[in-house]
Specification:
- By secondary structure, this protein is α/β, with parallel strands linked by helices.
- About 30% of the residues lie in helices and about 20% in strands.
- It contains twelve helices and 20 strands.
- The strands form five sheets. The chain has a ten-stranded mixed beta sheet, sandwiched between helices. Strands 14, 16, 17 and 18 form a four-stranded mixed beta sheet that branches.
- A hairpin with a 2-residue loop joins β16 and β17.
- The radius of gyration is 21 Å and the shape is globular.
- The protein binds guanosine-5'-diphosphate, 6-O-phosphoryl inosine monophosphate (IMO) and magnesium ion.
């Protein structure tokens, strides 16, 4: 069975968790490899809804192992909340969650700095989730971060927290006129969190290495989306990690040769939460209808998601930078309610036609979508379980998307629950 990387092909919230939960049926281990509690991954069962921020979305399947990899910025308080929530709902997680000891830890300074920076930026704010992601990654790269293994040893933790406190408190005072955070109670609290999490903390690299030798099947679960990638996205309106498939390798400590498939999760239309350019955004009643029918409100912050038509240049970029082998197209059912559906096939910029998503913010902002119009199917797809069950106009719409980005469709999703899925060509 193949080892699969699952990545968002747009601006996040494509329905990655739903697809990860479905494909976990065929896997043994699920690994998160980047991002942190900025992610909001929703898994719906018949009677419950879970929103995971750190725990991989395969956790609902008994006996499957879920790993938080080294590339994640790990908030111990959030992880404990999620573990308690799962256990409270009768899902046993002991021996099934592993936390890489070399993942970096999100500290109170990171969360405070994230919020202070955004407030100071005013109208130029990124619109972050306020989860401390950027400041934590920047301390990691600056080589004065705290790693998960440090939580288990006061001798390691104390000097590292003191160094961060010095650096960040100074910044708080000079840049933001904000109160300092006293490191002493933080050291105490994080040592206590370390004690609680000790049973889960391990060297995940060698666990995965042995699992690969034993031919276990692994899913690498991406967070955010390709156009939020710090290198390939709409910089600076991006997150602070590499969200693309290549990140699965360094963010979990598994060589790229272990990866067989890269599945791009594509919403049947487009959404974005937070600020930054969005060429196919609809600020009219059609956008409002997509938001309402699609329930497009952020799983982490509750913010209304901006909505628009499917954008082929965005997904073409995802095809290129991820090396997508398959598309999984989600939320097709949301379009059931539309008489006419538009697809952006390219952009008009400076009198020329662009097929590829540009890098320069000013160019992206000036791009005018070129639309092709297709008739809707105006009936429910919710009960469709095979390609042949789908109405002909829905088949035409999906086929056109696949043609425009030149990647085959492996799966289609027609509802939030696991069984509301159509498996196609996953070879
Ligand atoms: P993720 O961050 O990519 O995992 O996506 P989110 O969980 O943030 O947002 C996707 C939302 O769409 C969630 O509320 C899911 O329950 C829901 N969802 C996923 N797939 C489908 C689908 O095919 N149809 C519908 N109607 N909802 C879906
Ligand atoms: P999932 O995994 C959608 C967006 C934020 C903001 C930008 C930077 O659920 O798809 P950050 O807090 O990361 O510094 O914010 O990135 N963002 C997401 N948008 N889905 C997500 O995750 C996101 N995680 C971050 O809204 O625009
Ligand atoms: Mg989400």
């Amino acid at each position: 069975m193949p080892n699969r990387v699952i990545v968002g092909a747009q601006w996040g919230d494509e329905g990655k968790a739903k697809i990860v939960d479905f494909l976990t049926l065929y896997a043994d281990i699920i690994v998160r490899f980047q991002g942190g509690a900025n992610a909001g991954h929703t898994v719906k069962t018949d009677d419950k809804e879970f929103i995971f921020h750190l725990i991989p979305s395969g956790i609902m399947h008994a006996n499957k192992v879920c790993i938080i990899g080294n590339g994640v910025v790990f908030d111990p308080k959030q992880a404990i909340l999620e573990i308690k929530d799962l256990e409270g709902k009768g899902i046993c997680v002991s021996d099934r969650i592993l936390i890489a000891e070399n993942a970096h830890v999100v500290l109170p300074w990171h969360i405070a700095c994230d919020k202070l920076k955004e407030t100071k930026a005013g109208k130029d704010a990124i619109g972050t989730t306020g989860r401390g992601i950027g400041p934590c990654y920047s301390d990691k790269v600056n080589r004065h971060g705290v790693r998960v293994c440090d939580l288990l040893d006061e001798g390691e933790l104390r000097p590292r927290i003191e160094a961060i406190a010095n650096f960040r408190n100074d910044e708080f005072k000079k840049m933001f006129e904000a109160e300092a955070i006293d490191p002493e109670p933080v050291i105490k609290e994080y040592l206590e969190l370390g004690k609680q999490l000790k049973p889960f903390i391990c060297d995940a690299v060698f666990y995965l290495h042995e699992a690969l030798k034993a031919k276990k099947q692994i899913i690498f679960e991406g967070a955010q989306g390709t156009i939020l990638d710090v290198d390939h996205g709409t910089y600076p309106f991006v997150t602070s990690s590499n969200t693309v498939a290549g990140s699965a390798s360094c963010g979990s400590g598994v060589g790229p040769t272990a990866i067989d498939q890269v599945i791009g999760i594509v919403k049947a239309y487009t959404t974005r939460v937070g600020n930054g350019p969005f060429p196919t955004e609809l600020e009219d009643e059609i956008g409002e209808k997509l938001r309402k029918v699609g329930g497009e409100y952020g799983a982490t912050t509750g913010r209304a998601r901006r909505c628009g038509w499917f954008d082929a240049p965005v997904v073409r970029k995802a095809v290129a930078v991820n090396g997508l082998t398959h598309l999984a197209i989600t939320k097709l059912d949301v379009l059931d309610a539309f008489k006419e559906i538009k697809i952006c096939t390219g952009y008009k910029y400076n009198g020329k036609e662009l097929l590829n998503f540009p890098n320069r913010l000013a160019v992206i902002s000036a791009c005018q979508p070129i639309y092709e119009s297709m008739p809707g199917w105006e009936c429910s797809t919710e009960k469709c379980r095979s390609w042949n069950d789908l109405p002909p106009n829905a088949q035409k719409y999906l086929t056109r998307i696949s043609e425009l980005v030149d990647v085959k469709i492996g799966m289609v999703s027609v509802g939030a629950k696991r069984d509301e899925s159509i498996m196609m060509d996953m070879e």
